[in-house]
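Subgroup meeting minutes
Present: P.N., E.W., G.H.
Scribe: E.W.

1. P.N. recapped why we're keeping a running log of single-chain structure predictions: easier to compare across weeks, and new members can see raw inputs and outputs side by side.
2. G.H. added today's entry (186 aa).
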Amino acid sequence: MYESFYDKEFIIVDRLSYRDIPLLWQTQEIERWDVVVFAPGVSDDRKYFIKRVIALPGETLKIESGKVFVKEVGDTQFKELDESEYLSDENDDKTTVRWDSKQYIYEVPQNRYFVMGDNRAHSTDSRTCFQSCSVRTNYIEPSEIIGKVLLDLGYFNFRTFSFLHPDLDISTLPKFFNSYWEYSYE
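Output recorded in log:
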């Protein structure tokens, strides 16, 4: 999810919004563009993933010539998604499947979601079954979702007493009140 989120950042995850707690809390629907944390069960090394919801249950997603299109339930035509708000210049209009720019179609089953990382060229996500299609399907189930990102506190480096990321040498200031797809570290 680079440029939106970086490894080792501290994030606060809202674990309640997608849970139905009778008499206390009504479930919030998972929406396109939500950034979710989930456990797909594909690796002992990486238990949790953080990705953006791109397609919803029953929708059809098409990736072609670097662009992403969605046909919503009941529609007959694909509509191109405008992802310029959260994709960097390196990734905007450059979405492929394993570096192949030909057309790929994904029909999202009911009660499943199609998710992708914002660092498309280097993201393990629904396009590739989170590493291996022999282990799982392209889609995530609601039961795999831990919650959605509520706050990004950045990475605080105690050695330098700054928000300087130790591996990337960039500033990762907290993003308290800006939406995560509009915030820029620059």
